[in-house]
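Q: My labmate handed me this sequence with no annotations at all. I'd like to see what the chain might look like in three dimensions before we decide whether it's worth expressing. Could you predict it?
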Amino acid sequence: MEKITINEIAKRSGVSKATVSRVINNSKPVSDEVRQKVMAVIESTNFVPSALGRSLSLKKSHLIGVIIPDLANPVFSRIIAGMESFIRSKNYSLLITATDFNIDTGIRHIQILNEKAIDGLIFLAGTMNEELIQALNTFHKPVVVIGSDIDSDTIPVIEIDNKKAAYDATTYLVSIGHKNIAMIRGPLSDRYAGKERFIGYQEALIEAGLYNKHLVVEGKYSFDHGYNAMKKLLANKPLPTAVFCANDLMAIGGMKCVFDEGLKIPADISFIGFDDVEIAKMYNPTLTTIRQPFEEKGLQAIEKLIDMIKLQNDKKEASLAELIVLPHELVVRQSTSKIDYRSKEVV
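A: Here is what I predict for the chain of 347 residues:
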């Protein structure tokens, strides 16, 4: 079968090769008459433009870099699913890499992708510092961040109000009678979303006159760290009657520790998580938690980034930084219950 080239399309259409390229790439104005003539030849010959040639002519690769903290965490797979639902019809693909919550690894990945032929970058915040934010600010293509508000004049951020969500979770525990409310918080190196969740917890308890710094334990966002943090809480007095955890995996780890110590949930200790991953509604007891709209985060981020890429390619001024705050929801399940301190019984 004869291979049809762009030169052959130009010859059969009676126009220049450059005009055919403009029709294919929709890059410059072409009259309707000429466009219809060229498209008729393309359709009659089943001509398929070279993806490489198109990307070179447009200076576009149709590749989006995505940096996530953890490949195994179901939270990030749901965010990526939200991106995939949009880009399937947009001829884009995702190039995904992970940092394992390591700041230096994140900076290195940003630097590597800055040298690659990608059209833009989506960064899912784990732990961050000023150096990493500087690497994002100096990235040569459009960037969108999910999960942490950062100091930038050019980078949009998609997140929930982490402080308000943590405040709501803690206030709920206070409202059902709990006084000794512990927190298994994220690592101190997480000075953005993790810090905001701690501040929300702290503010709620200070308002209620219940804050006790000895009931706060740090850990990474994993099952094992949740388990070990809970062991530390159980080794001290007074025991907490409720624990707010910075994510669901920590909460499940903490609950497993409580069971291993022969205690009951929620009869002895209530738990609230954060995220609402699938296991939250499958574990026994089911986990009360803060629900985040993960798929919507991914969708909004990829839509925003592709808009920024288009503005850049059209040589128009890219949109300035903006903070897009999505709603959260407290989902009450079996892991929390009221407590009556007069009888010290769960109601």
